[in-house]
Design brief:
Helix content: 55-70%
Largest sheet: none
Order of helices and strands: HHHH
Distance between the termini: 112 Å
Number of helices: 4
Amino acid sequence: MAARPRFTSRATVLVLVLCSLVAILAYPTRQFISQRAEISAQRAKADHARQQVEQLRREKARWQDPEYVKAQARARLHYAVPGETPYIAVDPAGQAARSAGPAAAPAPPGSTAQGAKPWYASIWDSVDAADTAAAAPATPLPLPPSPVGDTSPHDH
């Protein structure tokens, strides 16, 4: 008996066909998997957008209620109903006490911290400084032309 070859021509053709099919189907399969991932990401994004829309609809419905609008005006804008006296509590120590730390005791109302001037003295000093600067000879700088229709708040 003669020795049979390990791979017959049929087996070789079958292996070539299978390798060709794997090579042909590899790219479309990869595209299919990536498109499925993209579809699921888009669905998640659409669900998130739907949730936002529902939240905004609920908020819009709340703003349609006159009592809610009144409550928001009172809380955010410090509006008061006629006959009420609105009060706003202000920290008399201000930023100086916050930056000094929690151990610093707040200054009593009506007193000034050591070395600090009352507000009216600061204003008067700024007026004096402006007067001194205006009395000193200085070359005026040309002003840039103002655009037509400028609605910036510094002119109003």
